Amino acid sequence: MEPEPNDSFPELVTNLPEADIPFDGVRGWISQAADHQVVFLDIDPIGEVAPHSHGEQWGMVVEGEVELTIEGRTRRYKRGEAYHIPAGAVHSAKFLSHFRAIDIFADVDRYKPRKP
User: How far from 17 is each of 8, 52, 81, 113, CA to CA, in Å?
Assistant: First the structure.
């Protein structure tokens, strides 16, 4: 039997520094390392995020679904599935439901902490 998803991350995560993400309906918490960044993402059904690129990214869906287009190939990812975006790959996303994921970015400074 599959466990029910939680509707939020635990305080262990939400007590981390909050990421300064410039989209309404998107929150993230940063676990910073010397050579990468882990971001716990919580995203409302905001629709599309425009095509963009950055360093390598790997993520695991915790809740919901996302439609990712990576270098022109579109695939839907759901709970328990992982995705990989190579460094420099042009990609976009479509969020049609509440979505949570844990993403690892090779860019050590992909997100800055939100200023209080």
Answer: 16, 24, 26, 6
| Distance between CA atoms of residues 19 and 114, nearest Å | 5
Q: What is the pLDDT along the chain (116 residues), one digit of tens a residue?
A: 454 555 689 999 999 999 999 889 999 999 999 999 999 999 999 999 999 999 999 999 999 999 999 999 999 999 999 999 999 999 999 998 999 999 999 999 999 999 87
Residue 12 phi/psi, 5-degree rounding, is -55, -35
Is residue 43 assigned to a domain?
yes
Structure tokens at 110: 């992909």
CATH code for the domain of 78: 2.60.120.10
Based on the structure, what is the number of domains in the chain? 1
The pTM assigned to this predicted structure is 0.92
